[in-house]
Design brief:
The protein has 1 helix and 10 strands, in the order βββββαβββββ. By secondary structure, the protein is mainly beta.
């Protein structure tokens, strides 16, 4: 599918904490842990992830770039790893080109639908492939 739709299920990331940055050959993952308050006692939280095959950018609150990739970042990954543990506090869908997740630190992750022929990103736990 080409184009980010208004009903993209990104509110499920609200309250989730960034736990891992994972680089595979052609996909870069941002992995989050769901808030524990929404879980039954004794159950481990299921992860939420965004697999990016297109382009993305991580910016500070002042909009200056921290890291970016298409999909694998060339630099800035160490600074991005410093955000592990930060929670998602807001999100925005920017139809039809991208969506953003704002972290408790003020940093903003923007994921773009940057490829008309192939997948740009996925939220596999929700069976979303754009």
């Amino acid at each position: 599918m080409y184009g980010v739709t208004r009903n993209l299920p990104i509110r499920q990331f609200h309250g989730a904490r960034l736990t891992e940055l994972r680089s595979l050959e052609n996909v870069f993952y941002f992995v989050f842990e769901r808030p524990r308050a929404k879980l039954s006692l004794g159950r481990r939280p299921r992860p939420l992830s965004i697999g990016i095959e297109g382009s993305w950018q991580l910016r500070r609150a002042d909009s200056s770039p921290v890291a970016e990739g298409s999909p694998i970042p060339e630099s800035g990954l160490q600074a991005a790893r410093a955000l592990i543990g930060e929670a998602v506090v807001a999100s925005e869908v920017k139809v039809p080109k991208s969506f953003t997740l704002t972290l408790s630190s003020g940093h903003v992750l923007e994921v773009f639908d940057s490829n008309q022929k192939y997948e740009s990103f996925s939220i596999p736990e929700s069976n979303v492939y754009v």
